[in-house]
Amino acid sequence: MSARKSRADRRVDLIEAARRAILRHGTQGVHLNHVAEEAGLTSGAVLYHYPDLGELLVEAHHAGMERFYELRVKRIAQCGDPVQKLVVTVRSGLPVGPDDPGVRLLNELGGAAARNRVYAVLLTTLYDRQVAMYQSILDTGAALGVFTLIGDSLTIARNLVALEDAYGYRITARHPVIGPDEAAELILSYARTVTGNPLEATG
Amino acid sequence: MSARKSRADRRVDLIEAARRAILRHGTQGVHLNHVAEEAGLTSGAVLYHYPDLGELLVEAHHAGMERFYELRVKRIAQCGDPVQKLVVTVRSGLPVGPDDPGVRLLNELGGAAARNRVYAVLLTTLYDRQVAMYQSILDTGAALGVFTLIGDSLTIARNLVALEDAYGYRITARHPVIGPDEAAELILSYARTVTGNPLEATG
DNA sequence: CAAGCATTTGAATCATTCTTCAAAATCGAT
DNA sequence: ATCGATTTTGAAGAATGATTCAAATGCTTG
């Protein structure tokens, strides 16, 4: 069967397996066997590492969020000017398609957060970090004179992240006309208005 | 125990009970007994009216959506000028608090829509209808000269609904600083910018 | 008010999932 | 190579939920 692994390795495997199982069955609908199956193990083995399935699911969501956020940070870091940063950041917050695993995992939590305090905190924290991310780009651009902000950067940043979130849901729900490109354009239309910058691709 | 009821009455009861059960346990997590308990019946009785729990859940979500939408339409109808209409509409799209049942029910579907075609269609349709609602208000205001739209009304309407959706999630997840008032102000800040109207409360 | 129909119960059955645990397998260290 | 500890299996038992259905209940109509 499956090879033996060290404690740490196996836990990483299981978090990954749980992530896939959640995408298949939903956070509420996942069962121990789903996770075991995804990991290529038996339910007993999963329980050996995570006696409480709930904790594993939380870790899976947590890991998924961190991955999502870190990916965005990395992509921004590769950009030079604030204009490019802003455009790239908008894109990196949207799913690449209806099946994008990163965004789909986040969307799973929308409902659960209203019932589960832990999930609520995770989601809220992610939102706030993304807002700070945008705010930093906006403030830098304003300081350099490339952006002329209409309103304060906090308000704009909050709205930008909100738009991303919402269009993420629309895209994963397969809206017939709003795909990644259209969503990006909708968000950028807002960004253009409030930054006074045409936000053309540079380079 | 519970009095006997006619077929039609009981189905309404069950849809209502299912709605409550969904709020308690999530769309994935609801079980037949949860619904039966909410309805004050046994699982057998529920099954008599709805042999397939899945169908009952769909009807519950559908009914909840219609109620939510119709309430908004009614509130708009009571407003006179487009400015008041816009302000009232923004408010009516947001939860009144973290426990607002209408919005919480909608939020439940976010994750499920990625896996379930029926839920995806329901959500997408609701989104489009809300967009049309806003678009009508914006176009009327523009025609009357009270709004000077920056960009086309479809783009603005899509973004307004998107913002509502996203802040609905934040509020139900109990964001520590973004409550109904703050969310309304964030959305209105966008609306002010793109309509060129201060959107002060009239009357 | 009795007959007939629709509704509901309650209990039995079946299926699924969770949990436990002894035995087996695997690995690392000596 | 062998020992000892860790990991995994597989099977058994407990718990929960879905499903079925005969019997009971309560309307409604004639």
Task: Please summarize what this structure is.
Chain A starts with 6 loop residues before the first helix and ends in an 8-residue tail after the last helix.
Task: Kindly describe this structure.
The structure is a homodimer. The first copy, chain A, has 9 helices and no strands. The first copy, chain A, is mainly α and about 200 residues long. Chain A folds into 2 domains: about 5-60, Homeodomain-like (Arc Repressor Mutant, subunit A); about 70-195, Tetracycline Repressor, domain 2 (Orthogonal Bundle), CATH 1.10.357. In chain A, α2 (about 30-40) crosses α3 and α4 (about 55-75) runs parallel beside α7. The longest helix of chain A is centred in the middle third of the chain and has 28 residues, at about 115-145. The relative contact order of chain A is 0.11. The mean pLDDT of chain A is about 95. Chains A and B meet through α6, α7, α8 and α9 of A and α6, α7, α8 and α9 of B. The structure holds a DNA duplex (30 and 30 nucleotides).
What is the helix tally of chain A? Answer: 9
The multimeric state of the shown protein is: homodimer
- Main sheet characteristics of chain A: none
| CATH class category name of the largest domain in chain A | Mainly Alpha
Shape of chain A: elongated
Helix content of chain A: over 70%
Strand elements of chain A, count? 0
Number of domains of chain A: 2
Name the beta content range of chain A: under 5%
The parts of chain A where pLDDT drops under 50 for at least 5 residues are: none
Highlighted features:
Tetracycline Repressor, domain 2; DNA-binding (chains A, B); transcription (chains A, B); elongated; HTH_TetR (chains A, B); DNA-binding; transcription regulation (chains A, B); 9 helices; Arc Repressor Mutant, subunit A; mainly alpha; 203 residues; DNA-binding transcription factor activity (chains A, B)
